[in-house]
Specification:
20% helix; Alpha-Beta Plaits; 249 residues; alpha+beta; 17 strands; Structural Genomics Hypothetical 15.5 Kd Protein In mrcA-pckA Intergenic Region, Chain A
Length: 249
Protein backbone atom coordinates (compact mmCIF):
# COMPACT_ATOMS: atom_id res chain seq x y z
CA UNK A 1 0.00 0.00 0.00
CA UNK A 2 1.35 3.41 -0.92
CA UNK A 3 1.15 6.13 1.70
CA UNK A 4 -2.07 8.15 1.65
CA UNK A 5 -3.48 11.16 3.46
CA UNK A 6 -5.07 10.25 6.76
CA UNK A 7 -8.40 11.88 5.89
CA UNK A 8 -8.69 9.69 2.78
CA UNK A 9 -7.93 6.57 4.81
CA UNK A 10 -10.63 7.42 7.37
CA UNK A 11 -13.16 8.10 4.61
CA UNK A 12 -12.37 4.82 2.87
CA UNK A 13 -12.96 2.97 6.13
CA UNK A 14 -16.51 4.32 6.04
CA UNK A 15 -16.22 6.23 9.31
CA UNK A 16 -16.72 9.72 7.96
CA UNK A 17 -16.23 12.06 5.04
CA UNK A 18 -12.84 13.68 4.41
CA UNK A 19 -14.15 16.97 5.73
CA UNK A 20 -15.39 15.29 8.91
CA UNK A 21 -12.02 13.56 9.27
CA UNK A 22 -10.32 16.94 9.28
CA UNK A 23 -12.65 18.10 12.07
CA UNK A 24 -11.93 14.92 14.05
CA UNK A 25 -8.20 15.54 13.74
CA UNK A 26 -8.61 19.15 14.87
CA UNK A 27 -10.57 17.87 17.89
CA UNK A 28 -7.73 15.52 18.87
CA UNK A 29 -9.68 12.33 18.18
CA UNK A 30 -7.20 10.71 15.77
CA UNK A 31 -3.77 9.24 16.52
CA UNK A 32 -1.14 7.53 14.39
CA UNK A 33 1.37 5.19 16.02
CA UNK A 34 0.45 6.53 19.44
CA UNK A 35 0.78 10.24 18.63
CA UNK A 36 -2.24 12.53 18.38
CA UNK A 37 -2.47 14.22 15.01
CA UNK A 38 -2.46 17.98 14.71
CA UNK A 39 -2.73 18.22 10.93
CA UNK A 40 -4.73 16.37 8.23
CA UNK A 41 -1.64 16.57 6.01
CA UNK A 42 -0.26 13.43 7.67
CA UNK A 43 0.23 10.43 5.37
CA UNK A 44 0.04 6.84 6.58
CA UNK A 45 1.10 3.49 5.19
CA UNK A 46 0.17 -0.16 5.60
CA UNK A 47 2.13 -0.52 8.86
CA UNK A 48 0.73 2.61 10.51
CA UNK A 49 -1.56 2.08 13.51
CA UNK A 50 -4.44 4.49 13.18
CA UNK A 51 -6.83 5.00 16.08
CA UNK A 52 -10.02 7.04 16.41
CA UNK A 53 -11.14 7.80 19.97
CA UNK A 54 -8.60 5.21 21.11
CA UNK A 55 -9.99 2.45 18.89
CA UNK A 56 -7.96 0.86 16.11
CA UNK A 57 -9.25 1.75 12.67
CA UNK A 58 -11.21 -1.20 11.25
CA UNK A 59 -9.81 -2.97 8.21
CA UNK A 60 -11.38 -1.73 4.98
CA UNK A 61 -14.31 -3.76 3.69
CA UNK A 62 -15.49 -4.16 0.13
CA UNK A 63 -17.42 -1.03 -0.92
CA UNK A 64 -21.19 -1.41 -0.85
CA UNK A 65 -23.66 0.64 -2.87
CA UNK A 66 -27.38 1.17 -2.26
CA UNK A 67 -30.20 2.68 -4.29
CA UNK A 68 -32.66 4.76 -2.27
CA UNK A 69 -35.91 6.26 -3.55
CA UNK A 70 -35.79 9.60 -1.78
CA UNK A 71 -39.23 11.09 -1.11
CA UNK A 72 -39.87 14.82 -0.92
CA UNK A 73 -39.46 16.43 2.48
CA UNK A 74 -36.14 14.83 3.44
CA UNK A 75 -32.82 16.67 3.67
CA UNK A 76 -29.77 14.90 2.20
CA UNK A 77 -27.69 15.38 5.31
CA UNK A 78 -26.78 13.41 8.41
CA UNK A 79 -27.91 16.26 10.64
CA UNK A 80 -30.00 19.32 9.95
CA UNK A 81 -29.60 22.52 11.95
CA UNK A 82 -33.30 23.29 11.45
CA UNK A 83 -34.38 19.95 12.87
CA UNK A 84 -35.88 18.70 9.60
CA UNK A 85 -36.11 14.98 8.81
CA UNK A 86 -33.09 13.63 6.94
CA UNK A 87 -32.51 10.86 4.45
CA UNK A 88 -30.42 9.00 7.00
CA UNK A 89 -33.06 9.15 9.72
CA UNK A 90 -35.48 7.52 7.27
CA UNK A 91 -33.27 4.50 6.53
CA UNK A 92 -34.03 1.11 8.10
CA UNK A 93 -32.02 0.13 11.20
CA UNK A 94 -29.01 -2.18 11.12
CA UNK A 95 -27.23 -0.63 8.16
CA UNK A 96 -23.52 0.28 8.06
CA UNK A 97 -22.64 3.96 8.02
CA UNK A 98 -23.63 5.34 4.63
CA UNK A 99 -22.63 8.43 2.67
CA UNK A 100 -24.64 10.03 -0.10
CA UNK A 101 -23.26 10.33 -3.61
CA UNK A 102 -24.32 13.83 -4.56
CA UNK A 103 -27.47 15.38 -3.17
CA UNK A 104 -31.13 15.98 -3.86
CA UNK A 105 -32.66 19.05 -2.23
CA UNK A 106 -35.56 18.78 0.20
CA UNK A 107 -38.23 19.19 -2.49
CA UNK A 108 -36.61 16.83 -5.00
CA UNK A 109 -37.18 13.09 -5.15
CA UNK A 110 -36.05 9.94 -6.88
CA UNK A 111 -32.81 8.02 -7.05
CA UNK A 112 -30.17 8.74 -4.43
CA UNK A 113 -27.08 6.54 -4.31
CA UNK A 114 -25.58 5.72 -0.92
CA UNK A 115 -22.27 3.99 -0.25
CA UNK A 116 -20.13 2.74 2.63
CA UNK A 117 -16.97 4.03 0.96
CA UNK A 118 -16.12 7.72 1.24
CA UNK A 119 -13.43 7.63 -1.43
CA UNK A 120 -15.80 5.93 -3.88
CA UNK A 121 -18.48 8.53 -3.15
CA UNK A 122 -16.05 11.28 -4.01
CA UNK A 123 -14.99 9.65 -7.29
CA UNK A 124 -18.58 9.12 -8.43
CA UNK A 125 -19.46 12.75 -7.72
CA UNK A 126 -16.66 14.17 -9.86
CA UNK A 127 -17.67 15.61 -13.25
CA UNK A 128 -14.66 13.78 -14.72
CA UNK A 129 -16.53 10.52 -14.20
CA UNK A 130 -18.73 11.63 -17.08
CA UNK A 131 -21.84 9.88 -15.84
CA UNK A 132 -25.18 11.06 -17.18
CA UNK A 133 -27.82 11.97 -14.58
CA UNK A 134 -31.37 11.73 -15.93
CA UNK A 135 -34.38 13.56 -14.48
CA UNK A 136 -38.08 13.98 -15.08
CA UNK A 137 -39.39 17.49 -14.43
CA UNK A 138 -42.90 18.84 -14.12
CA UNK A 139 -42.85 22.49 -15.08
CA UNK A 140 -45.49 25.18 -14.98
CA UNK A 141 -45.62 27.53 -17.93
CA UNK A 142 -45.49 27.51 -21.72
CA UNK A 143 -42.67 25.31 -22.98
CA UNK A 144 -40.98 26.31 -26.22
CA UNK A 145 -39.11 23.39 -27.74
CA UNK A 146 -36.59 25.73 -29.38
CA UNK A 147 -35.57 26.89 -25.90
CA UNK A 148 -35.05 23.29 -24.82
CA UNK A 149 -32.87 22.58 -27.85
CA UNK A 150 -30.75 25.66 -27.09
CA UNK A 151 -29.88 24.24 -23.67
CA UNK A 152 -27.63 21.73 -25.41
CA UNK A 153 -25.16 24.59 -25.88
CA UNK A 154 -25.11 25.33 -22.15
CA UNK A 155 -26.09 28.61 -20.53
CA UNK A 156 -24.49 31.25 -18.30
CA UNK A 157 -26.61 32.75 -15.52
CA UNK A 158 -25.38 35.45 -13.16
CA UNK A 159 -21.80 34.59 -13.99
CA UNK A 160 -22.22 30.84 -13.45
CA UNK A 161 -21.64 28.59 -16.46
CA UNK A 162 -23.93 25.57 -16.72
CA UNK A 163 -22.89 22.81 -19.12
CA UNK A 164 -24.90 21.19 -21.90
CA UNK A 165 -28.37 19.98 -20.92
CA UNK A 166 -30.40 17.61 -23.09
CA UNK A 167 -34.11 18.35 -22.59
CA UNK A 168 -37.05 16.68 -24.34
CA UNK A 169 -40.71 17.60 -23.99
CA UNK A 170 -42.74 14.53 -23.05
CA UNK A 171 -46.27 15.70 -22.41
CA UNK A 172 -48.37 18.85 -21.95
CA UNK A 173 -51.31 18.90 -19.57
CA UNK A 174 -53.00 22.26 -19.39
CA UNK A 175 -50.54 24.81 -18.00
CA UNK A 176 -48.13 22.06 -16.91
CA UNK A 177 -45.66 19.96 -18.90
CA UNK A 178 -43.35 17.02 -18.27
CA UNK A 179 -39.80 17.32 -19.55
CA UNK A 180 -37.08 14.65 -19.48
CA UNK A 181 -33.63 16.07 -18.86
CA UNK A 182 -30.10 14.62 -19.00
CA UNK A 183 -26.83 16.23 -17.92
CA UNK A 184 -23.34 15.17 -16.93
CA UNK A 185 -22.64 17.72 -14.21
CA UNK A 186 -25.26 18.96 -11.78
CA UNK A 187 -24.52 22.14 -9.85
CA UNK A 188 -26.59 23.13 -6.82
CA UNK A 189 -30.23 23.74 -7.87
CA UNK A 190 -29.05 23.90 -11.49
CA UNK A 191 -32.19 22.64 -13.18
CA UNK A 192 -34.54 24.87 -11.20
CA UNK A 193 -32.41 27.92 -11.96
CA UNK A 194 -32.03 27.12 -15.66
CA UNK A 195 -35.74 26.48 -16.18
CA UNK A 196 -36.64 29.59 -14.19
CA UNK A 197 -34.47 31.47 -16.71
CA UNK A 198 -36.77 30.04 -19.41
CA UNK A 199 -39.82 31.34 -17.54
CA UNK A 200 -40.75 27.88 -16.26
CA UNK A 201 -41.37 26.96 -12.63
CA UNK A 202 -40.18 23.46 -11.70
CA UNK A 203 -42.93 22.05 -9.48
CA UNK A 204 -41.62 18.51 -9.32
CA UNK A 205 -38.16 17.03 -9.90
CA UNK A 206 -37.54 13.27 -9.99
CA UNK A 207 -34.10 11.77 -10.57
CA UNK A 208 -34.49 8.67 -12.73
CA UNK A 209 -30.89 7.51 -13.00
CA UNK A 210 -27.32 8.25 -12.00
CA UNK A 211 -24.86 6.74 -14.45
CA UNK A 212 -25.73 3.06 -14.99
CA UNK A 213 -27.92 2.87 -11.87
CA UNK A 214 -31.67 3.30 -12.30
CA UNK A 215 -34.55 4.22 -10.02
CA UNK A 216 -36.59 1.53 -11.76
CA UNK A 217 -39.55 0.24 -9.79
CA UNK A 218 -38.07 1.07 -6.39
CA UNK A 219 -40.94 2.30 -4.22
CA UNK A 220 -40.88 5.69 -2.52
CA UNK A 221 -38.77 5.42 0.64
CA UNK A 222 -37.41 1.99 -0.33
CA UNK A 223 -33.75 0.98 -0.18
CA UNK A 224 -32.07 -1.76 -2.22
CA UNK A 225 -28.43 -2.84 -2.26
CA UNK A 226 -26.71 -3.15 -5.61
CA UNK A 227 -25.46 -6.76 -5.84
CA UNK A 228 -21.68 -7.13 -5.55
CA UNK A 229 -21.50 -8.70 -9.01
CA UNK A 230 -23.33 -5.77 -10.62
CA UNK A 231 -21.18 -3.31 -8.70
CA UNK A 232 -18.01 -4.99 -9.98
CA UNK A 233 -19.35 -5.00 -13.54
CA UNK A 234 -20.27 -1.32 -13.49
CA UNK A 235 -17.41 0.06 -11.41
CA UNK A 236 -14.64 -2.38 -12.19
CA UNK A 237 -11.95 0.17 -13.05
CA UNK A 238 -12.93 2.49 -10.21
CA UNK A 239 -12.84 -0.35 -7.69
CA UNK A 240 -9.57 -1.72 -8.97
CA UNK A 241 -8.03 1.75 -8.54
CA UNK A 242 -8.60 1.30 -4.81
CA UNK A 243 -6.04 -1.11 -3.29
CA UNK A 244 -8.45 -1.89 -0.45
CA UNK A 245 -11.57 -2.37 -2.56
CA UNK A 246 -11.77 -6.14 -2.30
CA UNK A 247 -10.29 -6.70 1.12
CA UNK A 248 -12.57 -8.00 3.83
CA UNK A 249 -12.20 -8.04 7.59
Amino acid sequence: MKEERIAKVLARAGLCSRREAERWIAAGRVSVDGALLESPAKTVGALSEVRVDGRVLPSPQRPRLFRFHKPRGLVTSERDEKGRATVFSALPPGLPRLLSIGRLDINSEGLLLLTTDGALARRLELPATGWIRRYKLRVHGAVEEAQLVALEQGVTLEGVRYGPISARLQAVRGSNAWVEVSLREGKNRELKRVFAHLGLDVTRLIRLSYGPFQLGNLGRGELAEVPAKVLAEQLGEMLSADPHAHRRR
